[in-house]
């Protein structure tokens, strides 16, 4: 690839001089780092995913649309990744669970992608949104009731990380214990560190056991929907389709809930508009997507031909990372002060093109319900530590706070059943 321009931010560099993508995501102000990179490189910057493993970070809004919409040039199939094929990437690398090829919709292009995408679209279309909203609201109320009398809580680990996983686990017919086991495995998987492959194995084994149990004893849940879908031809495809739905849905919704709550607790202007009714919850959710999309960076596309993008020479087999957060901050589409454009949904938080997120509606439903319930039940919540003390889970891809300690008026809030009655 290229020689890095001088002046790469020192606090996010690997030893070789290139910016480290995990360090960028975990920096106190990644938007500032993306802007520095854009000044040095333009809209396509070279970064390291781990020492010695290079990739192109696509930070331009228009450039990101180009690679997501031109699958004949930029493939989603990791079997085209030159560094993996040539052994630059170790088969034991923590990157493999997120970036290696799987027999699912994420790793396919063209007609094969459309075949594997249809079960996801069909499964989501069959969801009873009213029932899901009621169940999520009851779950959120139950979680808040567990800590409301204490007057304090960690809104990430006691709330935002639990809501999506237990909601998704319920949809797929798993109990709360299995849901929490899946959550532990997923945190390791998305971290892309030394325990990533072990987390991936645990995650898949729990779901494989569920698939096999549903084949013996079908029930009215999403697992059975995938088992019975004619487009899925074998157990591996059924398993991987469920892996996509749960893994992508959990981590991204966790991030979305966390960042919306964080904005409420750290940005007085944002909180005043929200509490004063000048900013609706959906507008708040979209502002969170603009500022910190659930997937700050999305792996990956692989060049099928030598080409040019954003003034950079891209070789066949090069890896390109979709820089959603950087593209949302592209000054060509969102100049400084654009936060005034409440309700604008032209962000790239859900990507674009054939691989655009299929679960935007349920993701918004779960996130909106979680945020609205917290607003209703904890109206005076406030951050319990200085905002600059917040830290981030290690990951090149997602930016989720390690913790979000909050305080509020202690009160007894009874848990509710999904039907609305107290218990």
Automatic annotation (TrEMBL):
Gene3D superfamilies: Cytochrome P450 (1.10.630.10). InterPro entries: Cyt_P450_B, Cyt_P450_CS, Cyt_P450_sf. PROSITE patterns: CYTOCHROME_P450. This is Cytochrome P450. It comes from the Bacteria. Residues 1-24 are annotated as: Disordered. Belongs to the cytochrome P450 family.
